[in-house]
Amino acid sequence: MKNIKYLLLSCLVLIFISCQEEKHTPFEKNPWVPERVTNVVVENLNGAAKLTYDVTKHPELMYVTAEFETQGKKRNVKATHFNNSLLLEGFGDTMPHEVKLYAVSRSEVFSEPVTVMVNPLTPPATLAFESLDIINDFGGAWATYSNRVKADLGITIMHKDNAGAWVVDEVLYTEKETGGVSARGLEAKPTVFGVFVQDRWGNYTDTLVRTLTPLYERLIPKPFRAFLLPTDNMTSYNSNNKIEKLWDGTVSSQNIYYTAVNSGMPTWFTFDLGVTTQLSRFLYQQRNDVAIVQWGHGNPRYFEIWGSAGTPNPDGSWDGWTKLMDVESVKPSGLPVGQNSDEDLALMYKGEDFNFPKGIPKVRYIRIKVNETWNKTTFMHIGELTFWGQ
After folding, report:
1. pLDDT confidence of 30, banded at 50, 70, 90?
2. I need a labelling partner for 112 at 20 to 30 A (CA). Which of 45, 160, 230, 367 fits?
3. CATH architecture, domain 124-215
4. pTM over 0.85
5. Of all helices (H) and strands (E), which one includes residue 16?
6. For residue 17, how many other CB atoms are within 10 A of its CB?
C-alpha cells in the first residue's frame, strides 16, 4: 500500500512539474526579434483610450501588447497580429498615463518598446456620479442616475443607522442609460443617505450625502383574502396554483398563482386586502423557478391595478372600481424573451417595485387585469404580490 501511495505522489509531482513547464515555456524557440510598431495614433475615450498602429507582418509575429498602470497596478492588453488596434480601459482619472507598446513573437521575444501618452476623458463612473440625485420616497429614499455612455457600473445606496454606521441598502449593477436604486423599510424620521458609483476595474467615486425624511408607509399584513366575482378568471392550472398563492410568502413552482391553459386573455382576478388604505407602492414577483419562465412564458408584462373602498358589485362588472395605475414589467437589458443578463436575473429574484401615483383614493379591494404576458400566452402566472400603504 505504501508503494502505491508513493507511486501516486510521484505521478502527481511529475504532472505538476510538466504543467509548470508548459505554462512558462514557449512552444517555439526562435531568436527572431519583431520590429517595433509604428504610426501609433491615440484616441482618448471616457475612462479609456484606443490605440491604432502599424505592425510589420511576419510569420513569427504573434501579437501586440500594451503595458500601462491603473490604480497603481500594472496591466496589459493584447491583440493578435491580425488586428491593428488596442482598447485600454479602466482609467479612473483624466491624468496623462504612459503606455508601452510591444510586438511579440511566437517565441515570446519582445520588440523594442514604443512609448506613448494617453489622456483619458472623464471616466463613466464620474459622469454617472455627476448626474446623481436623491429624493425621499415611501419608506426610504430613491436615487437616480444617468449613464449616458452605457458603461458597466455599480450604483450603491446606503443609510446611517442609529449608531452612525453606514448600512448598504442596495447595489445595482447595470449598463442601462438611466435608472435608480432605492432604500426601503425605514422610519419616517430624518435619515442620512449616501450614494456612490463604482466601475468593474475598482474605481470608486466620492459619496453624495443627503439628509432626508422617508415618507410614512407600513406593510399591508398578509394573508389577503380571495374575493371571487362572476366575471373573474376562477381557473387554476392545478390545485396547488390557486389565487391564495399570491400572498403565501414563497415563490416556487408549487407556490404561484397559475390560471388554466387557454383560459383567456385579458384576464382579471379580485382580492381583499383586509384594511382600507392609501396605497403607496407594491412589489411584483414573477414566476422564476425554471429558465423558460424567467421574463417569459405566462408572467404578466402589461397589467392594470384597480381598487374599490366599498364592497364590489356582486355582478362582476367594473362599476364602482377606480383604475389606480397601468403597469409595465420592464426587463433592464431589453433583450428578447429567452435571453437574460445578470441584471435581469437579479431584478427578477428581487422583484419589481412600483410606486402608486399620488392622489389615488383609499381602497380595500384590489382587482388586477392582465392584458398581456411576456410570451403572449392565453394563461398567466404570478409568484407573489406585496403592498404598502399609509
Report:
1. confident
2. 45
3. Sandwich (2.60)
4. no
5. helix 2-24
6. 10
